[in-house]
Specification:
Blueprint: E1 5-6, H1 8-11, E2 30-37, H2 46-59, E3 69-71, E4 77-79, E5 97-105, H3 113-130, E6 135-138, H4 149-157, H5 185-189, H6 195-206, H7 222-234, H8 248-254
Parallel strand pairs: 1-4, 2-5, 2-6, 3-5
Antiparallel strand pairs: 3-4
The structure holds zinc ion.
Length: 259
């Protein structure tokens, strides 16, 4: 899936307090998932990113948001340390590991499908950018902690499945239309009473070749013959070839639905 990341400038981040070290993509081998820990006051929107920033800068004294990204419950992604800067999310793993926060916490709501999908999108993009399959980790895989909580940890261990966006069902193929095979010229000369005659008459009307006063109906009448003659003339037949009795060529072109 394609991902869209709201930049620090766009969500109103404060200037870094200091300058986080740069990390090259080639140094990345892991991808860590975190939860909020407590219950986020702002589970969605830029206010969530600012809330995390305040905790990390004012509370922990860090340079800014310690995660590489923050994912809210609507599936929005907010830039923290991003692709290039060393995080402050898991001691011993901040160079090798990207870290993403998903905005759920103790007693809080479960991560939404959108949030999980966004986090998975980040993981896939991280693998693409680094050119390797990054190890999927929960915070507790790096250090003794409850983070990312039982549900998110189970999700990580389960391979971070994300719902694929619903692909529209291909429209069912229209069944090839079947046409009534030519019943033979003699059939019509016997003045038949048949559903074939009705079907033929309807097609003649549709082709603008009606000499019907009423109908068409199942009984072959002079109106059918005159109507069919119009069809033959429409096709360019003249004389005996436009006598109103169906021949195979004009019949096949009329495409009478199978009865
Ligand atoms: Zn954590």
């Amino acid at each position: 899936m394609s991902i869209s990341i709201t930049s620090r400038a766009a969500w109103g981040a404060r200037a870094w307090n200091g300058s986080p070290a740069r990390v090259s993509l080639s140094q990345r081998t892991e991808f860590f998932v975190h939860w909020f820990g407590g219950v986020p006051g702002n589970p969605t929107g830029a206010a969530l990113a600012r809330e995390v920033e305040r905790l990390h800068m004012n509370g922990n004294g860090w340079a800014g948001v310690g995660y590489n990204w923050i994912v809210d419950q609507d599936g929005n992604i907010f830039e923290g340390r991003g692709w290039d800067l060393q995080g402050a999310h898991c001691p011993g793993h901040n160079v090798s590991g990207f870290g993403v926060l998903i905005a759920v916490g103790k007693g809080g709501a479960k991560a939404s499908a959108k949030a999980l999908s966004a986090a998975r999108g980040l993981y896939d993009e991280a693998c693409r950018k680094t050119g390797r399959t990054l190890a999927k980790r929960g915070h507790r895989d790096g250090i003794a902690t409850e983070c990312p909580g039982p549900d998110l940890y189970a999700w990580v261990k389960n391979g971070m499945p994300a719902e694929k966006p619903a692909t529209p069902k291909p429209a069912p193929k229209p069944k090839p239309k079947k046409y009534e095979p030519f019943p033979g010229a003699a059939f019509f000369k016997r003045a038949p009473r048949s559903a074939i005659v009705t079907a033929m008459g309807k097609r003649l009307v549709a082709e603008g070749c009606s000499a019907y006063v009423s109908g068409p109906g199942p009984q072959w009448t002079e109106a059918d013959r005159k109507s069919y003659a119009k069809w033959q003339r429409k096709l360019g037949f003249t004389g005996a070839d436009a006598d109103g009795y169906p021949g195979k060529t004009s019949w096949d072109k009329l495409r009478v639905p199978e009865v």
